[in-house]
Request: fold
Amino acid sequence: MPKFVFLWTDVVVMLLVLALAGYIRHLRGKPNLRANWKRVFQNTPAMCSAVIIAVGLFVTVLDSLHYRPRLTDAGSASQAIAYDTRTVSVFDGLVSRLYEMRESSYSKPLDYESFTKESVTREGEVLRINPRLENAGSQLKDPATEWLPDLAERALAGLAAGAMAAAVLSALLVAGVARAQQRGFGETAGRIWHRETDIPWRAALFTVAMLALNDAKLATRLKAFRDKQAEAVKKAKLPEL
Reply:
C-alpha cells in the first residue's frame, strides 16, 4: 500500500468538497432553497456550465490525493518498507505514461522532431539538424510519410473511445433520471430527447458528449495549426539555434 501524503492544498480542496456536500445536505430540508436552485438548473447554459464545473471538480479531487509509491515489500518484520521520494497524485498515476514520456527539449505540437537544432557529424561534415525526439513518433520508420496517417489513426481511436465513454455516461444519467422519476428507461430517454423534462438533461448529455469527443477531427486541425505555426516561424525570421 502506498504512503499517503497530505499537502495543505489538498486539505483546502477536501474542506471545500466537504463544505459543498454539507450545503447539498442542508438543501434537503429547505424547500425554498431547493426551488431556487431548481430554477438555476432549468436554465440550459447554467446546466451545461454545471456539467463542465463538475468534471473540473472531479479532476481536481483526483489531483489532490497525493501519495508516495511503495518501492519494495518488507521481507521480514525488521525490514522497513521503502517508498519513492517522489510525491504523485492519483491523477498523475492515471496519466503516468504522459509524463514518463517527457522529452528533453521542445517541439512543435505532436511533432516527431526537436524544435531546437543540434550539431551532428555525418561523413566528416558537421550539420545542423532537428534531431528525432526520444519518445514522440518513435514507432515511425518513415516519419515524413507515416506521421499524418498515424496521427489520424490515433485520433479515430480516441474518438471511438470517447464515443463509448459518452454512451456509457449518458446511459447512467438516463437510468438515474428514470429511477428518480419512477419511469422506464426508454420512456425517460424519449422524454429527455424531446425536451419534456423540467431540467434540460438533453443539453447536459450533449455537453458530456462534447467533452468526451473533444478530439474529433484532431488530425486535420492539428496539421493546419502545425503548418500555420511553421509559417509564422519563417516569417518571424528567427535566428537558428
